[in-house]
Amino acid sequence: MEQLLRDTYVEINLDNIAYNMKNIKKMVGENVKIAAVLKADAYGHGAVEVAGTVMENGADYIAVATLNEALEIRERFHDYRILIMGFTPDRLLEYVVKNDITQTIFSLRQARLLSELGIKYNKLPVVHIKYDTGFNRLGFRDCTESIEEIASIANIENINVEGIFSHLALAGREEDERQYNRFIAAIDELRKRGIDFKYKHIEDSISAVDYPEYRLNMIRPGAIIYGIKGFHYGHLDLKQALTFKTRISHVKEISEGEGVSYDYLWRAQRKSIIGTIPIGYADGYPRSLSNKGFVTVHGKKAPIAGLICMDQLMVDLTDIPEAKEGDEVIVYSNGENNTMDLNTMAILAGTNKNEIISRISRRVPRVYIKNGEVFKIIDYVK
Ligand SMILES: *Cc1c(COP(=O)(O)O)cnc(C)c1O
User: Fold this and answer.
1) What does CATH list as the number for 14-226?
2) Of 199, 266, 281, 335, which is least surrounded by CB within 10 A?
């Protein structure tokens, strides 16, 4: 097994991801397919490792944001269905076709191009149509001309128009309902023209839990796969997969009045014990938690002292006198045993949970747990 070359690492529990996937499958039932969203390196969990786990536990499709993400998964898994939910420029569509990747499109031009490339490479390109019901990010605008254009796409030879989808802005129940109704109206218009789709989908994690009535026959959950909860009305039992850990690299006693870190933004109010830990903002730990956050040592909270540096930060260990160099530090976890939970952390840092985990950097090794044991270590840097 690969050696752990740093004290700082994230532990990723694949058993928890399997547990979450099974519960999502149970929630939606057999008639709703699951496109598991593994963009942003599976929200920091490692897309290739997570891909196998989700596909073995109820997922039908893998969804990513970009072509390079799709290719990374394709290289390892030759027969998984992979959907690129984002835009791929014309000049790169040949990679999509050659690698049997499903592409999101919202123009007749790209549909024609994909069809031609399919003929050239002897493939039948598969596409999902993106229909914009109000988010105003990607997709055909909601109007009659768009319906006509989609109908033309459906009539192009050598292209499989497998799906149509939209995305909710989650701007409140009424707005979500309005978007859903616009989507259904578009689907109905197309059906009148004799066009139907194998897959229709509009729901992400939050909406899939909160609005069972909008699941259609496919959902695109991301966050809930990793045990990240953001839903308001529904319920789903989940286990967070990720825990960020490190070890104390230095402990010292300082006198009352001494400053710590850049600009001395923290000063000792009493004789204090300061611990240094080898994690900084370059590891994806938010610098905005300077003087705000805490980590956990021996089951106790150790407040962050002063500005967070690029590679290190200091904590106040004065009330944890047993702490010594080499001791384990839980940087964040699920909130149990006095650990920092992602929700609290996101609020303190002025961001959301997905941003925190998707920004865990390459320098942080991933340690995978499977069947309760360390099963693999991935270090992207070495
Ligand atoms: C990221 C994304 C998702 C998944 O979002 P979660 O909130 O993590 O479930 C679904 N659909 C699209 C189009 C996305 O970009």
Assistant:
1) 3.20.20.10
2) 335
